[in-house]
Amino acid sequence: MIRYLLLLCLIVSLQQDEDVMLWSASSQLAWNDFKAQPENGTDIVATTASGITFSYSIKKTDHKIVSFNTQVFGHFYPDKSWVILENADDYILAHEQLHFDITELHVRKFKQQIERLKVSAHIASDLDNLHQEINKLLSKMQNSYDGESDYSRNLIYQTKWHKFIKMELEKLSKYKS
Fold it and tell me: Domain ranges in the chain?
């Protein structure tokens, strides 16, 4: 008897009608992708909501796990991302794009780590733990990026981050979405 178990784990809970965009090397964010209402009383010009969606299936035969499959994607959430257009420019848009690129970098790291996993009786918990860990690393890097670049205002660090993320994405191009 073959049985399949499918679990879906999301950083951001998706509703049926929620608009999402997949990360793509050939497509960049545009200001019209930012559809949420801006926050009042802030000096922040834009906010990018992005995250990793992850699902897996486990194949069992005679109550023994024999294989597993995964799907991992980087998403941008237009309905949770916002911009104050009168204060926005291409430089700030590039900063926001890099947030989305950092999400893709962690998608690739996640795929690389999944590739190293072996089928075992505890594969589901291994996958869930790996997912939690990659989300922590993603959050930490997003915060470091904003902190070091001072939300794009520090041109030197903004440039360093852009080069670093481009290089890291290239290193993991095998896992590109």
Answer: 2-175
